[in-house]
Amino acid sequence: MEARIAATDWSPFENALTRDGYAVLPALLTPRQCREVASYFSQEERFRSRIMMERYAFGRGEYKYFGYPLPDVVRRLRESLYPHLAPIANRWHSAMHIDERFPATHSEFREVCHRAGQQRPTPLLLRYRPNDYCCLHQDLYGEHVFPFQAVFLLDEPGRDFEGGELLLTESDPKKPGRAEVVPLRQGDAAVFAVNHRPVRSMRGFYRANLRHGVSKLHRGQRHTLGIIFHDAR
User: Fold this and answer.
1) Is 174:220 a contact under the CB 8 Å cutoff?
2) Mind giving me the DSSP string for 32-69?
3) What percent of the chain has pLDDT over 70?
4) Start and end of every Fe2OG dioxygenase domain (predicted)?
5) For 137-163, what is each residue's pLDDT tens digit?
6) Could you tell me where the beta strands, DSSP code E, fall in 72-202?
7) Among residues 97, 161, 180, 205, which one has the fewest Cβ atoms lying within 10 Å of its Cβ?
């Protein structure tokens, strides 16, 4: 897993991420790892809270936030992806004239969050069943927001489920908005902007606002692992 992350060519990845607001890392998890992580959903001791989306008008479905200590595979993904994303995050913040800069390691950034009272872990496991969906939203949680997050698809579309596509929308103050379906296979990770991305203009850069959600599931069951790098209040 760490070897596949280290072997990624991060320059074209950054270009795609900046251009589109998202980029895909294919086959980052093996089918066996996907099944292992999906199996955590029934292990209540691993989680700090359980959310029924319909209750809060978030959509329909269920997700659970992991508690500390995180499962080993979740911790390793968080810690191994972060050092590659932090330099991109710093370049984005510089372009958008946002003051915050991110340290080199996730442990250092987690300390920044914890000193600010953001001490609850945010990686989460989601389960969708027929007719479940997730409304468009942003995962912000506090003062310190890392500008990227990752979603890992743990089931195979067409075999395990139908529907349930990852959706991204962008609101651009200078042109009509857009929506996109992000195609994923089992084990793929989509890395996307948490709240906005820099867009070049004649006068420099401005911010386009992004949201993400999941379309209605038509058949089967869909599990996803969400890796959010900042912790919550």
Assistant:
1) no
2) HHHHHHHHGGG-GGGEEEEEEGGGGTSEESEEEEEPSS
3) 100
4) 119-232
5) 999 999 999 999 999 999 999 999 999
6) 124-128, 133-137, 148-153, 161-163, 166-172, 175-182, 189-193, 196-201
7) 97
**How many residues are there in the chain?**
233
Domain 2-228 classified CATH 2.60.120.620? yes
Question: What are 149's strand-pairing partners?
Answer: 192, 228
pTM of the entire structure?
0.96
* Nearest by Cα to 149 from 70, 82, 66, 56: 82
Where do the structural domains in the chain lie, given as residue ranges?
Answer: 2-228
pLDDT of the residue at 173 = 86
Nearest to 219 by CA among 127, 101, 128, 153: 128
DSSP helix/strand/coil, 14:
helix
What's the CA gap between 147 and 62, in Å, rounded? 24
